[in-house]
Specification:
about 200 residues; HD_phosphohydro; Metal-dependent HD superfamily phosphohydrolase; Hypothetical protein af1432; mainly alpha
Length: about 200
């Protein structure tokens, strides 16, 4: 058992969930699906590192952590209901035993990034999911390549338009990061990375 798996099992059990080893095995199998290149356990581990840095600022860190573990557990490239299906997966395994279950589902749905959530826990979940945008330029580019690899159904021009739509929408926000912690830590570099990416020429 890896340290990451042990962390999930301990958290799931501490939160009131049952059959933690079976849940962990199913979760790990799903994150290892061959169509995934970015939405893998590597992304989850990075989220956990950012969560640990901000833990003292988060009202309910265990609930936020469970949401981050589960927010991409169901992922079909190009699908628009991945987050909803991930909440269904969580509800099935939680089986009503996890007291914060509905708030965790709200946090998973918040990672669609379609609106500014009201709750601070939800805002932290969103910011941690997007923290990669404020990483170094080299890591930003590597992760961009991983995201591109998940969409072999799109040619280069179609993918470029898709990516520009998403990144342009984030850049147009008054704030990319909704919490003061991540705004101070990531906002400036994220805006530089997004501006650089959007200034690249479009493929012919």
């Amino acid at each position: 058992m890896t340290q990451t798996q042990a962390r999930f099992i301990e958290l799931w059990s501490r939160s009131g969930g049952a059959r933690a080893e079976a849940v962990c095995a199913d979760l790990a199998q799903r994150y290892a699906e061959p169509a995934r290149h970015y939405h893998t356990l590597l992304h989850v581990r990075r989220c956990l590192r950012d969560l640990d840095r901000a833990r003292d600022e988060i009202p309910h860190p265990d609930a936020v952590e469970l949401a981050l573990w589960c927010h991409d557990v169901i992922y079909t490239p190009g699908a628009r209901d991945n987050e909803q299906r991930s909440t269904n997966w969580f509800r099935q395994w939680a089986d009503g035993r996890i007291a914060a279950g509905e708030r965790i589902c709200d946090m998973i749905l918040a990672t669609r990034h379609t609106r500014v959530p009201d709750g601070l826990d939800e805002r932290f979940a969103c910011d941690i999911d997007l923290a990669v945008l404020g990483a170094s330029r080299s890591r930003f580019c590597r992760d961009g390549g991983r995201l591109r690899a998940e969409r072999p159904d799109l040619d280069d021009r179609a993918y470029d338009l898709h990516e520009r739509n998403i990144l342009g929408g984030l850049l147009a926000r008054p704030r990319i990061y909704l919490t003061d912690f991540f705004h101070a830590r990531c906002e400036t570099r994220a805006r530089r990375n997004l501006t650089w990416r959007l200034d690249l020429p479009m493929p012919r």
